Amino acid sequence: MKAIHTKKAPAAIGPYSQAIEVNGLVYASGQLPIIPSTGMFPEGGVAEQTRQSILNAESILQAAGTDLKHVVKTTVYLADMGDFGAMNEVYSQFFCEPYPARSAVAVKDLPKGALVEIEVIAAI
Fold first, then answer.
1. Any residues with CB less than 8 A from the CB of 62 and at least 6 apart, and which?
2. Three-state SS for 67?
3. How far apart are CA 116 and CA 109, in angstroms?
4. d(CA 64, CA 50)
5. Chain-centroid distance, C-alpha 35
6. pLDDT exceeds cutoff 90 at 8
7. What are the residue ranges of helices labelled H in the chain?
8. Per residue in 49-84, pLDDT tens?
9. How far apart are CA 35 and CA 116, in angstroms?
10. pLDDT tens digits for 36-47?
11. Contacts of 68 (CB under 8 A, 6+ apart)
12. How far apart, in whole angstroms, are the C-alpha atoms of residue 77 and residue 118?
């Protein structure tokens, strides 16, 4: 196992790695919509937060030597399933066919009051 770390994505805020590479796959931890340079969420709503979460995941994948085109699975956590449409619209701008497998679930709360958190698994 190899830990992946980049300053172009938010630092882990607990006892976990930004990502782990093992057996040709990169397992990225869930990415909150934190702008690495400010430590803040982007202004706006779930669309802006979705974009930032995916950009954070993309930075981690690049540090591991892969990219969004090699994502095989995503999990999207939403604070409100009513935001699914807005999230999905932004999400579709980052992924193309063949689309990765995906789960999308609503959760009671997300860290720091985020509206969305996204995790990815990608091939090297």
1. 6, 8
2. coil
3. 10
4. 21
5. 12
6. yes
7. 46-63, 84-91
8. 999 999 999 999 999 999 999 999 999 999 999 999
9. 14
10. 999 999 999 999
11. 54, 57, 58, 61, 94, 95, 120, 122
12. 6
Task: Tell me the C-alpha to C-alpha distance, in Å, between residue 113 and each of 12, 23, 48, 58, 109.
Answer: 16, 34, 14, 22, 7
Alpha-carbon gap, residue 111 to 117, rounded angstroms: 9
Contact 59, 6 (CB under 8 A): yes
In this structure, what are the phi and psi dihedrals at residue 51, rounded to the nearest 5 degrees?
Answer: -55, -45
Mean pLDDT score of the chain, rounded to an integer?
97
pLDDT computed for residue 124 by the predictor:
95
pLDDT of 13? 80
Q: Is the dihedral of CA 70, 101, 110, 91 positive or negative?
A: positive
d(CA 120, CA 118): 7
Rounded CA-CA distance 52/34 in Å is: 7
Structural element, H or E, at residue 29: none
Given a contact cutoff of 8 angstroms between Cβ atoms, the answer to whether 10 and 34 are in contact is yes
